[in-house]
Here is the input.
Amino acid sequence: MTVHIEFDSSWQNEFIQRIDNDGPWGSWELYKLAIEVEKHTVIPEFAGLQAPLHLPNLTPLPHQLEVARQVVENMNGKAILADEVGLGKTIEAGLILKEYMIRGLVKKALILVPASLVTQWSMEMNSKFFIPAVAQRKSYVWEQCDVVVSSIDTAKREPHREIIFQQDYDLIIIDEAHKLKNNKTKNYEFVQSLRKKFCLLLTATPIQNRISEIFNLVSLLKPGHLGTETAFYEKYRKDSRSLDDDEHLKQLVNKVMIRNRRQDTGIEWTKRHVETIPIEFSEDEKNLYDAVSNMHREGDWISSSQFSVMTLQREACSSREAVFYTLRNMLKKQEEPSMQFEEKIQSLIGKVEAVQRNSKAEKALDYINKINDKVIIFTEYRATQMYLQWFLKQHGITSVPFRGGFKRGKKDWMRELFQNHAQVLIATEAGGEGINLQFCSHIINFDLPWNPMRLEQRIGRIHRLGQKSDVHIYNFATKDTVEEHVLKLLYEKIHLFEKVVGDLDDILTKLQFGNIDDHLLDIFGKSSSEGEMRIKMDNLTAMIEFAETMKEESGHAATGNS
Amino acid sequence: MQQQEIHNFLERYFQSNQCEIIDNKQGYMTVQLTIELDKELMNRPFYWHYLEKTGGIPNPMQLTLITDPTIAPEDIKGEVIHFGSPRLHQIFQSTKNLAGYIRLYEDHKAAPGGQMSLRPWLGMNLRISYQCDRKKDIFQSIGLHLINGQMVDHFHDRLLKVNLTPKIPDYTFTLSPFIKPQSGIARVANYLKETISMENHDWADEARERWQKDLQLLEHFYEDTEDKGESYDNEKAALKDQYEPNVCISIVNGGLYYLTDQAIG
Here is the structure.
C-alpha cells in the first residue's frame, strides 16, 4: 500500500521572497549550528528510546527500559505501571517523561504523589534526569513552572484547583494510583477533570479482577474507550469477576497495564536468611507476663476490651517499659478509677518494677556484637525504642532512633547519621515506610507485627534494588507466649519470610478475608482454650494455603504483559 | 547531548548572535542578551511594543543558564537546562529560525589578473519524518546544480570543506542559473517523493494492522449501543491521529551557493 507523502511548502515562499529582496540572509555559523541541532534531534529508529543516551547519571535496569519502551511505542503514553514494590517505578516514569521531553512532545507536566514523597520525587527528577521538577510551594508555580510535583490533596483544594484546571498538561503522572479505583471520590473527579495528553498511573497493587476498577482506571486514561458506563456494566455486571473469561477485556488490560514481578526482572536478588531466635523469659519477666495474661480471668474489674489484654501481653514480650506506659495510660483514662481497679493496676506495676533485666535486649546486644556491622532493630513500641537506645548506650553501642512522625528533613538526617556514624538504627513501626537503607543488611525484629504486610515493608527497606549482600533477618520470639504462636502460624507455616511482597499482596487481596489483625485478635483473644486456639489457627493457615494454590493455578491472568 | 555538549552549544549560539557572555564558569553561564535575542527568547512583546511607542532606552535582559547543577555554585540563580528542557527546545528552534536562509560565495584565490566564475547551487537540508503511532526521522542534505541539473547527496558535509563568505569575493562573477530556484525546489521535492515511494513500507502496513485491531476493540465495547454519541467519535478520531501512517518532508534550512567547479567533486 502506498503512503501519503507531504512536502512542506512554507519554506519555499519565503525563500523566493528573500531572493527577490536580496536578503536578509542568515549567518553561516548559526546555519551550521542549526544542522548540528537537527542531527541531535532526529529520531533515527522507529523503535528504541533516546532518553538513556542523554542520562550520564543513570543506568536504568533492563526491565525499566523495557517498560519505558512499551509505554512510548505501544501504549501511546497512556499506561498503568504496576510493578511490584521496589522495582523502580519512579525511574520508569522519569524515563518516559524525559523521552517525551526530548521528542518535544511534552512541555508541561504535573506529578501528583503522596505528600511525604513530594521532595523525593522532585529531587530524583532533578538529579537523575536533569528535569527541573519543582515541588509546589507557592501558587504561582502552577503557571510558571513546566514540571511541578505536588500532593493530590493540595492540588485539589482551592485556590490551586481552579488554576490547575486552566492548564493544558501534556503529561500527568500519578503515584499510588490505586487510590483512584473508586470513581465516586473527590480525587477521582479531580483527576478526571485535568486536561492531559499523556497519563501514567503508578501503583504497586495490581488491578484486581474487578470490572468496576478496570472501568474506572481505563476511563481515566482513555475516556470513552469502554463505551458508556451503563452499557458497560450491563454487559459485564458490576462486581462480576468474569475478566478472565473475556478476551476483549483481557486484551484491553494488556494494552494499558504493565506489571513486572521480581522474578521476571532477571535481576539476581540477594538471598534472605531468616533465623528465629527463641528467647527465654527470666523469672520476673515470666511473672509479669502471666499476671497480664490472667487479667481477664480475674473477674470483671477490667472493663476495657480484649484488645488491651492482648496489647499488654505483646508488650510484656517487648519490654517492661512498654507495659508500664500502657498501664499508666489505662489508669489516667479512668475518670474515677474504682479502688479495685487502682489496686490491680498498682499490683501490675509492682510486677513491672520487679523485672530487673530484659532478656531480649541482652540477646540483641549479643547479636549486634556478633554481627559487627550495621543493624536495624524494629520494635512496635516507642517505650521499647527509648529503652533500647539507653541500654545500647550503656554498652558502648551508638544508635539513632527513627519514627514515622519525623519530618522529612529529620528522617534524612537520621538516615545519614546511621549510614556514617552509628551502628544501630532503632525504628518503630511507622518509621518503616518511605526510607531506603540498602547499605545495611541485618534486621532484628525485636517484636513481631501481626500484619504480614507491615513485616514485608520492614524487610523491603533493605531488601531492594541496590542491596549488594544477602539479607539477614533475626526474629526474636519469646517462648510460650502469643509471640511464639504468631510466629509459628504466620511465619513458619506459610513460609512468609521467603516470599516477596507481590505474592503476599496477591494472596491477601484475593482472599478478601479482611484484616489479618482481626483474625489474630479473634484467635488469641476470644478462644477459651488452647484447643480452640489451635483449631482456629489451623483454619487460617489452611485458608492462606488455599489462596496460594488458587493463585498458582490461575497463573498470571490479567496481570502479565506478554 | 551530554551536559557539557549543551554548554558548548549554548556558548556558540550566543556568540554567533553577538551576545556578550558575562560569566562563563563550570556548570553555568550568564549572558547579556542583545535586543534581537531578547525579542527572540524572552517572550515579552508588550515591553518591546511599549518601548518602541514611548521611545525609552531599551534594556535587554540577562539570562543565566545552569548546565550542570551539581558543579554550579549553590547560590547561582538561573534556569536549569537539560536535553529536553523547553528552553533548550526554544533555543534549538530559534537557531533554525535565525538561520533558515543563506547565500554564500566560495572564497577562493583568483588567478592574478584573471577573473573567476562561480556556479549557482541550490542547497537544501531536509528532515524526512515517517510517522504513525511511532516515528522516525532521516536527515538529508541535497545540492542541485542550477545550470546543469546535477543533484548531489551529503551536500552540507561537502560544503564544510569549502571556504565560504557572505560577500562576493573580488575578481569574481556569478553565472545566472538556467533553473529557477522555485523549480529547483520542485525538482528536489519530486526526486524525494519518488525515492520514498519506492521504499519498503511494511512499517505503514503494520501500523494499519495495529490501528484495525484497536478499532475492533473499540467497536466491541460499543456494539450493543444504539446511539454511540460523541465520545465514540472522539475516540475513533484519536485512533486515526495516533495510527494513520504518513511521510512528512520538512525543510530545516537551505540557500543559494556560488561555487567553483572544483568545490563539489
